[in-house]
């Protein structure tokens, strides 16, 4: 894909403070993510996320992230937080992900794949998740939590997906330019790379991350 007239979307994930949500909106971030996965240090309760949702500016998407949550938990988040996108990182199937009437992104762990798993991955993903609006390729291994800050081999991203993909896993202000130039993703997703501690965002890192993505977008092909 040519970068001509193309803008890489940016998602800041694992938000836990209203001030960070407001700053993300002011920086022009396209989406902010709220984590509801068990075991995550960034996990929120629906009531907490609803408060953060109210700090968002117009035209910014709220994304709710889950990993093998019960259907009742997802419904509670949908009711209270009103996310515009859902993001699933566990063993959820397409029917489960589609069952809430909201577009969804499926997170795909990329670390530790052997060559046989990589072969034909695009077709496998299309068949397993036909209802996915996009795929998110992350740097964790199967069964692990995302948001660990681990980079994976970008050359293993499957081609021919027929859908947008979001790049995650170990992205930081000092490497996101190279990541965008190398992979030309629809969007990039960052959590730990703009933090001082899990869930605590760093304003300078947030600003620099956005600057570096925009620099890549404006860079000649």
TrEMBL record:
> Which reaction is recorded as catalysed by this protein?
N-(5-phospho-beta-D-ribosyl)anthranilate = 1-(2-carboxyphenylamino)-1-deoxy-D-ribulose 5-phosphate
Organism, scientific name: Noviluteimonas lactosilytica
Annotated pathway, please?
Amino-acid biosynthesis; L-tryptophan biosynthesis; L-tryptophan from chorismate: step 3/5
List the HAMAP family: PRAI
User: According to the lineage, what is the superkingdom?
Assistant: Bacteria
**Pfam families, A to Z:** PRAI (PF00697)
Show where the N-(5'phosphoribosyl) anthranilate isomerase (PRAI) domain sits.
Answer: 11-211
For this entry, the protein name equals N-(5'-phosphoribosyl)anthranilate isomerase
Q: What class of enzyme is it?
A: isomerase
Query: Gene3D superfamilies per the record?
Result: Aldolase class I (3.20.20.70)
Record key words, sorted: Amino-acid biosynthesis, Aromatic amino acid biosynthesis, Isomerase, Tryptophan biosynthesis
Q: Does the keyword Aminoacyl-tRNA synthetase apply?
A: no
Cited SUPFAM superfamilies: Ribulose-phoshate binding barrel
State a single Gene Ontology molecular function: phosphoribosylanthranilate isomerase activity
């Amino acid at each position: 894909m040519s970068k001509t007239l193309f803008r890489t979307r940016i998602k800041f994930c694992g938000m836990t403070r209203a001030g960070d949500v407001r700053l993300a909106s002011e920086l022009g971030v396209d989406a902010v993510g709220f984590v509801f996965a068990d075991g995550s240090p960034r996990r929120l309760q629906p009531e907490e996320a609803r408060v953060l949702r109210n700090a968002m500016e117009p035209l910014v998407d709220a994304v709710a992230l889950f990993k093998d949550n019960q259907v009742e938990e997802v419904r509670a988040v949908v009711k209270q937080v009103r996310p515009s996108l859902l993001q699933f990182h566990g063993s959820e199937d397409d029917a489960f992900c589609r069952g809430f009437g909201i577009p969804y992104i499926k997170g795909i762990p990329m670390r530790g794949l052997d060559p046989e798993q990589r072969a034909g991955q695009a077709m496998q993903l299309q068949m397993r998740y036909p209802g996915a609006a996009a795929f998110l390729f992350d740097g964790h291994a199967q069964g692990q939590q995302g948001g660990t800050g681990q980079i994976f081999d970008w050359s293993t991203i499957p081609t021919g997906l027929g859908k947008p993909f979001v790049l995650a896993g170990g992205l930081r202000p000092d490497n996101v330019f190279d990541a965008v130039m190398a992979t030309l993703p629809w969007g990039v997703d960052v959590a730990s790379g703009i933090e001082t501690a899990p869930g605590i965002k760093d304003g300078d890192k947030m600003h620099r991350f956005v600057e570096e993505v925009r620099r890549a977008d404006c860079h000649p092909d």
